[in-house]
Amino acid sequence: MKSWSSLKSKIEQKTFDNLETQILFSLMYTPQLSFNRLWNKNGRSNKFAYYLQKLQKEELIVKEGKKYSLTAKGKQRATYINGKTGKVTQKPLLAVAVILKHRGKYLMLQRTKEPFHGFWGFPGGKIEFSNYPLEQAAESLLEDAGLRCQLQLKGIFFSKTYHAGKQLYNHQIFIVKGTEPSGHLLPLTAKGKNKWASRSEILSLKTIPNTSLFLDIVESNDFRYVEADRIFNDSESTTLNIKTNLKL
Hints:
Layout: H1 2-12, H2 19-29, E1 33-34, H3 35-39, H4 45-57, E2 61-64, E3 67-70, H5 72-78, E4 93-102, E5 105-111, E6 120-121, E7 124-126, H6 133-145, E8 147-163, E9 166-183, E10 192-197, H7 199-202, H8 211-219, E11 224-232, E12 238-247
Parallel strand pairs: 4-9, 8-11
Antiparallel strand pairs: 1-3, 2-3, 4-5, 4-7, 5-6, 5-10, 8-9, 11-12
């Protein structure tokens, strides 16, 4: 009874995004609960029953006897619920950037998606659940440019991106150096337009603010750890404010 009273108090102090989140939150703290305990006479019972059935169909919860509990999939989803507020939390985006050099030039990609639509940067992408960073780097380079190469992890870049004083993104990017490419370069893909450019040519492009920093990192003999704020001044200009830059 003590554990139920504690959970009931936790629930009453939260403002949940929806009933589904409330159910997952409840089962996160008390592994097995009956319908009445989960419902707690909060709203119409038939509406609550509908969301319970929905979560069962999505295989997020399971009913055993008269009690409900989280499945492995449900436990995974529940980790995104903030224990203090009861709301689904925003998480940093884990990604890779591949800086591929060949014959004195670097492979550049002009983005066709936000953030930084129209800016030039490097091939890469968000790390898929099934991939390690270097696996994702290889997969992204093949998908974005049609190329394979030798890969070496050179640094980690943590950045918060702001516009008009509001934080929009939190990226954690593994910086990967690429050499010895093979394959045929795809000039255009769903991600954007590809081209080779020398460092001096890159200076004339409208680039993502961390572009020069990434070039420095892959050319360095050291492994680097960097924290920086990226700020959108307007649609054409950005600023990079480096907070931490460590050689490891």
